[in-house]
Structures are given as structure tokens and as C-alpha cells.
Amino acid sequence: MSGTGASLLPPPESIRLGAAFLLGAALLFVAARPARRHVARLVGLWGASLALRLAAAAAARHLPSGEPTLSFLALLLQGIAFVGLAAVLLFDVLLPLAKVRAPRIVRDVAVALSWVALLLWLFSVHKVDVTGIVATSAVVTAVIGFSLQDTLANVMGGIALQLEGAFAPGDWVKFGETSGKVAETGWRHTAIETRNGDVLLVPNAVLARTPLLLLGKAKGRREPLERRWVFFGVDHRTPPAAVLETVREALTREPIPNVAAEPAPSVVLMEFRESWASYAVRYWLTDLLLDDPTDSEVRTRVAYALRRAGIPLAMPASANFVTVEEEGHRKRHEKRDLEARLAALESVPLFSALTAEERERLAPGLVRAPFAPGEAMVVQGRQVHDLYILTKGAGDVRVAVGDAPPRVVSRISAPDVFGEMGMLTGEPRRATVIAVGETECWRLGKERFREVLEGRPELAEELSHVLAARQVELATAREEISDESRRHRIETEHGSLRARIERFFGLGARGGAGERSGR
Q1: Can you give the CATH number for the domain in which 386 is found?
Q2: Contact 380, 399 (CB under 8 A)
Q3: I need a labelling partner for 410 at 20 to 30 A (CA). Which of 63, 90, 243, 426 fits?
Q4: Bridge pairing between strands 432-445 and 386-399
Q5: Residue 435, domain member (yes or no)
Q6: For residue 285, what pLDDT is reported?
């Protein structure tokens, strides 16, 4: 009994080999998480080879003729398990560490060739006449090859595509009318994932002899960039230079998600139609999956920019317009518009010193300025002499210091005002204000405000006092200062701001010239 039990145990070298295999499988199970199922299957295959070894040992005592076959199968399964484990180590651990992604077909070919080498080695160990097997199976091989010629063509086409390396998984391609991202190249076909969430399976033989457009890969770019065209039309009576500059400025003042900064977006005049001119925005898309959403964002920026500039989009030449000429309707519309402008001016504490008559003089100079979500209403560092009255929505105040990335420091909500320092003193914008959701503003320019200020120069005194108090209040919120220091700062800022306002609008120079002429 003891002798029989001992003979059924595997030899010591097999035990060491099995321990090494299980140790390697355990390490790979931890290191290669995506390949855990495959590693578990290989362990099961090793267990099956061990069972065949035990069966071969039992057959040697009771059925000697079956022992060679069982030993051969045990060695075959053991070799396949080792080859699979080596493939996991190479393709799932070592190559990813080296930032190398091997296509699936390369892995399959390497494993298949290893199996063939293993089979030939086993034949040589067991003294099997390989030439006789090949000769007797030549006819069968010819029949199988003839019946599987399409499959073989796809396999050879896949190998050729991989050897050429024209594209790789993750590349965006266009095949016929379908565009998408290459998922993988297998033995029979290449899988292309479309933007609609579908998967197009293209036989490798067809792909090898059909033109394939690689999207965004020109000039050896590492990351794909695809140039997109967004068309729009404007009435031909609007000067083209005004349209080009308005849209270009709107597209470049604040980055648009998935639009490349370099090359920068451009605007071109395409052609003249019957009653309107056709324009196009050309930009470079960085995420090829988000083509339509990015086109929509670009169109939104274009529409808001044209509305702010008072440039209407084109309408068909055959459109019929019905205008209500009733005088009462026109006056009611003008009254509502004036009330909205006056309400906006009254909501600004800066203009509390203005008389009702002065507000009525300013009101016609207000220009509607709507902004799209995420659009920059003002940009830090730019010298623009406009004030904005926020009547709907909110804006994030973002400041960039040095080379550090911009950060949001506060949020303003309607009703509020921003840009007053640019209009009154001409200083560059201190911060960028980004629209949060859809916002509506009124824009007031320096020249319109000059008319009121020249009519009452002493207004600069009151404006500078309001501005100084507001700036000191903001400073007080950031740092603790005493009441005496606060009053001193207000007086200091007041005098400085008054001098800057008078200098910016030329009030002191005009007054001095008048005094000299009087003398």
C-alpha cells in the first residue's frame, strides 16, 4: 500500500515546477487585474494537467498502453498553461510598464507560434514521426485551406495591417461613410466604434485593399486634431470686416472646451448669395468624439457675439415682414424699453449721484449685451472703456497672478455692475468675469458718459468718493483694518481716483484752457 501510494505521487521536479507555476500565477493575479480571469483559467488548466499525470501514473500499473498518451496530454496542457502565463507577464505587465500597447493579433500570433513550437518539441521528445503526419495530412490540409480561403485572407490581411502599423487602437478613421475610433484588430476583422455607440466590423481583407482615411493624424501629431467648419449667414449690408472681427474676438477671448488654442479659430467670408453673405468659422477639434456638441458651442458663441454687435443673421430674400404701424403700439414699446434702461441705471449705486435728467440722457446709450454660458464678459488685462450692468444671471470673477493658473475669487449676481474702473479711469481690467449660465447685461461706453460728465464736471468728485468707498470695503473684507485706517484709505483713494477720472476725461485740461482764455 505504501509503495503504491508513493508511486502515485508526482516526481520532485514536477512538484517544484508546480510550486513555481502557482507562485507566478499568484503574483500575476495581483499585478495584472484585467487578466485575472485568464490567470484563473490557466491555473485550472494546470490542475487538469496534474490530474492527467496522476491518471498516467495509475495507468502505468493497470493499463500500460494508455500511459504514453496520458503523459503526452499532461505535458501538453502543462506547456499551454506555462505559455499562457508567460503571455500574461509579457503583454499585461511588462509591455504596459514600458508604455507599449501590443495589438491583440500580435499577442494571438505569438501565443499560437509558441503552441506550435511546444507541440513540435513534444513530438520530438516522444519520438513521433512528424514528416509522416504532414505527408498523410497534405490532402486534408489542401481541402481545409480551400474552404477557408476567405478566413485565411482576413488573417493575412490583419497580420499585414499590424506589420505596416498604419493605424492602432484609439486612432480615429473614416471608412466609407462611417467614421469612428479603432477598437481592436482581431484575426478576422477590425472593430470600429462609431460616434453613435455602434461597432462596425470590417473584414481585414476588405480593409487592406480599401482606402482608409486617418482623421486628425496629419504632420505626425501625437494627439488627433480635426478641422471643423461652422457656417452662418449675415445680411450683405453689414460690412464684412465688422462681422469677421466680431466673431473672431468672441471665439478667442475665452477658451472654448475641446477647441484648440493653436492653431487658433479663424473666420472667413465664403461667398455672396442672393441677399446675404456666407461666412464660416474654422476651428480645430481636440476630442473627435464631441464634434456636434462643440459645433453647437461655437454656433452659440457666434450668435451671442452678433447679437451684442447688433448684427442680424441672414433671412431668406422671400421672407414677408408684417410691421405694426399703430402709433400707440410704438410708443408703448419705446416706453417699456426706456423703463428697462432707467431701472438698470437706478440699480447701480455708482450712479446714485446722478439726477433723473442725467439718467434719461444716459439711457439711450445703453446697449444690450447678452452672453452665453461660459463666455468671458470682460478679460483681465484688456483696456476696454465700457461698464457693464448685470441684470440677469451671474458671473465668476477669475484672477490670474503671474504664471499660476487663474482661480475664481468671487461671484457677482444680478443686479450688479462691473468694469466701472475701465470706463471711468481707463485702467486695464483687473479680472476676468465668466458668465454663469445665460446672462444679460447693458453696456455703457465712455463716450456716452462723457456727455453727462462734461455737463456737470463736479460729478467726478461724487463718483470718485463712491468708487473709493467700494474699493476700501472690498479691501476690508480681505483684511482687518481699523475704522481710522478705513477713513484714511477712503480719503487717499478718493483724491487719487478723482484726479484719474479728470485726467482720463480731460476735465482738468479743459477747465485750465477755459481759465486761461478768460484771463
Answers
A1: 2.60.120.10
A2: yes
A3: 426
A4: antiparallel
A5: yes
A6: 93
